[in-house]
Design a protein that fits this description.
Blueprint lengths: L6 H6 L2 H55 L4 H70 L5 H98 L12 E4 L4 E9 L17 E7 L2 E5 L7 E4 L6 E5 L7 E5 L4 E5 L3 H30 L9 H10 L4 H6 L17 E3 L4 E3 L1 H10 L6 E3 L7 H7 L4 H8 L3 H4 L10 H13 L14 E2 L3 H7 L4 H4 L16 E2 L4 E3 L11 H4 L11 H8 L10 H11 L2 H9 L16 H7 L3 H9 L14 H8 L2 H9 L14 H7 L3 H20 L8 H16 L16
Antiparallel strand pairs: 1-2, 2-3, 2-8, 3-4, 4-5, 6-7, 7-8, 9-10, 9-11, 12-14, 13-14
């Protein structure tokens, strides 16, 4: 309850004023008790929350241990690992909630009690003291006798001075009371509002996490239903087989019950036999018969045996073609037969006469088969079959031309068939901003780094846009590891493998991508510059990674003293460089004149042919690589600390994303956007990437920027928005896209559907344009290079 004390009543020092003071002081005292109690309860809640998080972590460790124990069952292992990763994130969200509670409730209210309430108490002490002094002065003044003029004047002066002091301190006290009454409302509400926002954030984070997990859970639920059905079927089959076997007459000596034949693994026959010792005594072990009973098998043209399944087989006969087999009737034991080779003989005993005959027949059949197979191999060796050699590059190209799934297309890139961080084969997850494939465990670790470091997607469960899929096919694990693990061997760091502890993998991945410890910051590597004509660059926008492999190479590391060289693909390298990259930005990156006109011919003649090009710093390096469409160079620049929204003040405040638009590469724009590039940053003329894409007639880029939230209402220094420019340049496709996007935006605003993608027609049209821009960009090219408008 807010109580305001009147200043006029304070000067009068009336009974109403004193009563108001008593009410306020009692209210403040009770407020202090309530706040202290709330702070103590908050501390107890935080301590209980920390204990809850600790118990939850132990529970997560139990789930991970169960997942590792179930490593032979991929479904259980992957599911438990994914669930453990998700629940681990929930634990982190809980910890963040309790931390916010400590800051908003405990710390903020304690500060209010210790500071503001303390000031109130100090003011109250001063007021009480001066109030007593005033009362004393009044009493003395009243007691002063009229004849004693000296005492009367002294009492009067003291009373006047004391009354003035009382009024000043009383007014200060009342001010402190009123300020406290006003402030306590804001402090309490501010702390509680902060705490409630922390709850809102917590539940939003949990909802987003489990919304992403929901498709996987539904798919797993379908698999679980199938597994339950399959288990019931297997149970019925086992019951039928059990009943059938019970009905058999076990008295009948059936060799099939005591020996096995597995033609798929090359085993002709296997089963238990007794073996007579091969020492000088040639005896059977009568005291312990199991010491001479072994599991024999005929496989790979050899007779071998083993005592336990895990033991390495002992070879009795290395080549059955050199031996013979016969029955042994001249020894005291029954059912014996002998396998004789040029160097030794082995006497074996079966459990029955039928089993002995089955073994003899199996050995004889194996001998005949071995002779026949050797003869066939000799005939084949006389012929010279033609060998077809297919390069991996051509295979990748053929695979990309076909309509495979995202998993198949991405895994055909060199190095993508194993996890980028631990080497586990057949990874099904990817980091879309890094361009790498990951196993499920490493993907969980990447997810914990945050989306500003790694954006994780499933190659099997998520839907892939064509430009994003094309981006994944432009980099790959080999290229990215050559950048982020360049200094691993030099530093003596051991890369974790599949099966290592999660903590070890997490430490390595964090050091690799967050701290970038293994990036070779002192290398002499240079930006690879592609010398291509404008027409080649436009065509390159729709080439697959297999096609580009013949035109470009990853960043090549060269000594600093080497001069400019050119390889067969037209790529030039320069390495006589210094650290003055920022100073050389204007000369090395002057792709456009002051009016925005492209200077391709000047660039080829001046910059590309120079033998002393200055080495670029990360920001300018990213800027130049973005124009050239050199994704490995861009990835290396970002790894060296380049700011993705770096501004080139010497070229009209251009950004790497604007350079990517000028370079005509759709996948380069997508790479920058996935790595945090702002789609609305403008140059000095007020033109953003959408303006430049519209000016150049790059329909695919316009479609991409609209999907990524570009502001189509922004105007440049001439007052023109992208739609106005598209109408002036008469580009029907871009006008259609811009008008459709604007109409969809107006519909969503009128219906209050904020954050919704739009109706199905809008999505279908943009989906068609995206596929055309990524797979058949020549259909969208409305301008030739020579006819491009000024940018």
């Amino acid at each position: 309850m807010k109580m305001i004390v009147d200043f006029e009543e304070c000067l009068k020092d009336s009974p109403r004023f004193r009563a108001s003071l008593e009410d306020v002081e009692g209210d403040v005292s009770e407020l202090e008790i309530k706040l202290d109690k709330l702070v103590k309860l908050c501390i107890g809640m935080i301590d209980a929350g920390k204990a809850f998080c600790a118990a939850n972590k132990q529970f997560m460790n139990g789930i991970r241990d169960l997942a590792q124990y179930s490593s032979k069952d991929s479904v259980i292992e992957s599911s438990l690992t994914k669930f453990a990763d998700s629940l681990q994130e929930m634990i982190q969200y809980h910890a963040m909630l309790f931390d916010q509670a400590q800051r908003s409730i405990k710390t903020q209210l304690q500060t209010f009690v210790k500071e503001d309430l303390k000031k109130f108490k100090d003011s109250k002490k001063q007021f009480d003291k001066v109030s007593e002094e005033k009362e004393t002065a009044l009493v003395k003044n009243a007691q002063a006798q009229r004849p004693k003029q000296h005492e009367v004047e002294e009492a009067t002066n003291i009373l006047v001075a004391t009354r003035k002091c009382f009024r000043h301190i009383a007014l200060d006290y009342v001010l402190q009371i009123n300020v406290l009454q006003s402030k306590r409302r804001s402090e309490i509400l501010k702390s509680m509002l902060s705490f409630m926002y922390a709850h809102l954030t917590f539940f939003h984070q949990g909802y987003d996490l489990f919304s992403e997990l929901e498709p996987y859970m539904k798919d797993l639920g379908v698999q679980l239903d199938n597994l339950v059905g399959d288990a019931a079927k297997e149970k019925r089959v086992m019951e039928i087989k059990h009943s059938t076997i019970q009905q058999k007459d076990f008295a009948d000596d059936d060799p099939k019950l005591d020996c096995n034949v597995d033609t798929t693994s090359g085993i002709v026959m296997e089963g238990y036999l007794f073996k007579r010792a091969s020492n000088a005594f040639k005896t059977w072990n009568r005291k312990k018969p199991d010491h001479t009973r072994r599991w024999f098998s005929i496989q790979n043209n050899q007779l071998v045996y083993q005592k336990k399944f895990k033991d390495n087989p002992t070879v009795v006969v290395e080549d059955l073609r050199l031996c013979t087999v016969k029955q042994c009737e001249d020894i005291e034991r029954r059912f014996c037969f002998e396998v004789v080779s040029p160097t030794k003989s082995c006497i074996l005993q079966a459990d029955s006469d039928k089993l002995r005959q089955a073994w003899i027949n199996a050995v004889q059949t194996s001998i005949a088969t071995a002779y026949r197979e050797k003869g066939d191999e000799a005939e084949k060796s006389e012929k010279k079959p033609s060998v077809s050699i297919t390069s991996p590059l051509s295979e990748a190209k053929e695979n990309l031309v076909k309509g495979e799934s995202a998993l198949q297309r991405v895994q055909c890139i060199p190095g993508n068939t194993s996890c980028c961080d631990c080497g586990l084969s057949d990874p099904c997850w990817a980091s879309i901003n890094l361009g790498i494939t990951l196993c499920i465990e490493c993907s969980g670790i990447h997810r914990s780094l945050g989306v500003h470091f790694s954006k994780v997607r499933s190659l099997t469960l998520d839907t892939w846009e064509p430009e994003l899929l094309k981006l994944m096919c432009e980099l790959g694990n080999d290229v990215v590891n050559s950048i982020y693990e360049a200094g691993v061997e030099k530093m003596g760091v051991k890369k974790p493998q599949h099966g290592c502890q999660r903590q070890e993998k997490e430490a390595y991945i964090r050091a690799k991508y967050v701290e970038k410890k293994f990036v070779d910051k002192h290398s002499e590597s240079l930006l690879v510059v592609f010398k291509r004509s404008p027409s080649v660059r436009n065509k390159d926008d729709h080439l697959s990674v297999a096609d580009k492999g013949l035109q470009s190479e990853p960043l090549t590391r060269m000594p600093s003293s080497s001069s400019v060289k050119s390889n067969d693909s037209g790529i030039q390298f320069s390495a006589d460089c210094s650290q003055e990259g920022l100073a050389g930005t204007a000369s090395c990156n002057s792709l456009f004149d002051q009016d925005g006109e492209k200077k391709v011919e000047k660039r080829d003649s001046s910059v590309f042919q120079e033998s002393n090009v200055k080495k670029l710093l990360p920001g300018p390096r990213l800027y130049q690589a973005s124009y050239e469409g050199n994704l490995p160079g861009m990835a290396e620049a970002l790894a060296h600390g380049a700011e993705v929204n770096w501004v080139n003040t010497k070229e009209n405040n251009g950004t790497p994303l604007i350079q990517a638009v000028r370079g005509s590469s759709l996948v380069t724009c997508e790479f920058l956007l996935q790595n945090g590039a702002s789609v609305n940053n403008c140059d000095i003329k007020g033109r953003g990437p959408l303006h430049h894409a519209t000016l150049l007639g790059h329909t695919g880029q316009v479609c991409l920027f609209l999907k990524r939230g570009a502001n189509q209402h922004a105007s440049d220094e001439d007052g023109k928005d992208p739609l106005t420019i598209a109408i002036e340049t008469a580009n029907a496709d871009i006008v259609t896209l811009l008008r459709l996007a604007r109409m969809n935006e107006e519909m969503r605003e009128s219906e209050g559907l904020y954050g919704q993608p739009g109706d199905e027609t809008y999505q279908d049209i943009f989906r068609d344009f995206s596929h055309m821009a990524s797979n058949n960009p020549e259909k969208l090219n409305r301008f030739h290079q020579s006819d491009s408008p000024k940018s």
